Amino acid sequence: MVRLGIDPSGRLPRSALLLGAELLLLALVAVQGARLVWTLATPHGPIGDWRPSRALVPVAGPEVLASFDPFFRLQGGGGPAVVTALNLKLYGISQDRATGRGSAIVGLPDGTQRSFAVGEEIMPGVTLAEVAFDNVTIRRGGVAEQLFLDQSTPAAAAPAAATPAQPLAPAVTPAPNAPAAPAAAATPTANQLRDIRANAN
């Protein structure tokens, strides 16, 4: 059995260039590791004028179900809706039925329009309480009032498309010096077409 030995003189010499490249790569890895730790430890940066969000209206719990019958709601009758007398106009509604939240675009008395979330104050003493399909409920002094979308004007009708059977003819305007064309003859009737065909034969 022959034993192979490793001759130290047979190794490739480690050059200073290779050692320098290894040290450079090791330094780059160390710098990138430090940057990673620094990125994870510090916040992203300035976030602007931060204000805490307003308190949200809590979603009602099981005690609400004890106050009314959810299956036969129309029997008890909650009375007619009280329409608000405030100078407000409802322009749009965004309703989230899953959470009971939503928002509404309301026109204010000064002529501006703003979006309000449920629970936000529209005017002093007036808050947006609930968002429905075509109206919102506001609370003014603890009294619920409703504001409806304006549906008195019908939506604009879409323009009728030209049917393929009747293509539109381009409008032709005569030249200013051109003589007027003779009036087109009336469309021939079935009897006139028979006479023309008979004369042609």
Automatic annotation (TrEMBL):
Annotated region described as Disordered, given as residue ranges: 159-201
Entry keyword annotation includes Cell membrane: yes
Keywords from the named record: Cell inner membrane, Cell membrane, Membrane, Protein transport, Transmembrane, Transmembrane helix, Transport
Ranges annotated as biased composition (Low complexity): 159-190
Entries under InterPro entries matching the protein: T2SS_GspC_N (IPR024961)
Region forming the signal peptide: none
A family per Pfam: T2SSC
GO terms under cellular component: plasma membrane
Positions of the Type II secretion system protein GspC N-terminal domain: 23-149
Keyword Protein biosynthesis: no
GO terms, biological process: protein transport
Localization per Swiss-Prot or TrEMBL: Cell inner membrane
Chief site of localization: membrane
Name this polypeptide is given: Type II secretion system protein GspC N-terminal domain-containing protein
Organism of this sequence: Allosphingosinicella ginsenosidimutans
